[in-house]
Amino acid sequence: MCAERRGERLRTLEVLPDFDFRATVWSHGWCVLAPFRWEPETGVLERPLRLRSGVVNLSLSQPNGRGAPVEMAVAGGRGSRSGLAEGLWAGVERDVARMLQIDRDLAGFHAACLEAGSPFDRAPEQGFGRLLRSPTVFEDVVKVLATTNTAWSGTKAMVANLVRLTKAPAFPTASEVADLGAGRLRTEGRWGYRAEYLAALAQLITDGELDLEAWDLWEGTTEDLAAEIHRVPGLGPYSTASLLGLLGRFDRIAVDSVFRSFVRRRYFPKARKSPTDRRMEKVYARWREWRGLAYWYDVWSSDYEDADALESSASK
DNA sequence: TTCCAGGGGTAGA
DNA sequence: TCTACCCATGGA
User: Fold this and answer.
1) Which nucleotide is nearest, taking the CA of residue A278 and each C1'?
2) Which residue is nearest to the C1' sugar atom of C2, using CA?
3) Which nt sits closest to A186, CA to C1'?
4) How far is CA A265 from CA A234, A274, A301, in A?
5) Nearest residue to C1, CA vs C1'?
6) Where are the beta strands (DSSP E) in A21-78?
């Protein structure tokens, strides 16, 4: 299934019948954070990808729509004229599978959505449920940290500054971030007080004292994984819930300003006093292990369902 | 100038 | 479990 096209190297990846590329890419704001580049008009998601042999530029799309194979085009890097070696393709496919959650089984969530009725019963036909991820847990953790206590515009700036500062051709590794140090992250990266957290995290990983990638293969309970995440300085309840969701566990809701304003507006429009977080979380209690995903669909289907709304929301 | 944004850590009640 | 306070930064 390997073919040459405009000097690129192209392969396709089989997906589950309910896999929807656009719904996955637009699932939340990651697609507009560096080094991702998303073009809604063409439906192509691009980013540099770090392989064993170096960095290549990856373009992803699903030209024939839901359930059809995903196209992976690779440009640049060593051997660009002769095609990518078989072993390197395995790396590309592994990263793409992680980013797009190709293997994520949504049957349980979609069954619950159909049972719940409107507006949730539209989630299956919209292919909602797979959240866009980074190639590594490390990149996801860094990006979640960049969303804390800042506006979305600040998140985009912090991530872009980080990629630019390390001069890495792809998203920086932990050791590249550690080399920058808290000082430059703070002054040039504009990471503020988060700079200390990011630098310390990168150093722990570089020193081999923390293995974030192991979270992907976690076989223990969600509670144990949550405790492990929460142990990382700088990652509190919101970050823990966000990362659990990216790791496919939706028991918890990431309570932040988006959650509070959305739930208050939709479910407590006449309340004079803002309900407590606990009260607002109860709105989704019946979803049990799907709480986080159900809440996010509620937001997504009302504010994020068209491209303009997502982009305006994402660029605020 | 003040407030707030996809919060976290800490102390004290 | 909750509240209060501090932490940085940029935009409205």
Assistant:
1) C1
2) A276
3) C8
4) 29, 10, 15
5) A278
6) 37-39, 44-51, 54-61, 70-75
pLDDT tens for the 316 residues of chain A, in order? 444 444 458 999 999 999 999 999 999 999 999 999 999 999 999 999 999 989 999 999 999 999 999 999 999 876 556 678 888 999 999 999 999 999 999 999 999 999 999 999 999 999 999 999 999 999 999 999 999 988 898 999 999 999 999 888 899 999 999 999 998 998 899 998 899 999 999 999 999 999 999 999 999 999 999 999 999 999 999 999 999 999 999 999 999 988 988 898 899 888 877 888 888 899 999 999 999 999 999 999 986 544 444 444 443 3
Distance CA A181, CA A175 (A): 10
The nucleotide lying nearest A259 (C-alpha to C1') is B6
Whole-number distance in Å between A235 CA and C5 C1': 19
Contact A62, A86 (CB under 8 A): no
Q: Is the pTM of this model over 0.90?
A: yes
Protein-strand B interface by C-beta, 7 A: A 28-29, 147-152, 154-155, 193, 230, 233-240, 242, 254, 256-258, 261, 314, 316
How far in angstroms lies nucleotide B11's C1' from the CA of residue A227?
Answer: 22
What's A151's DSSP letter?
-
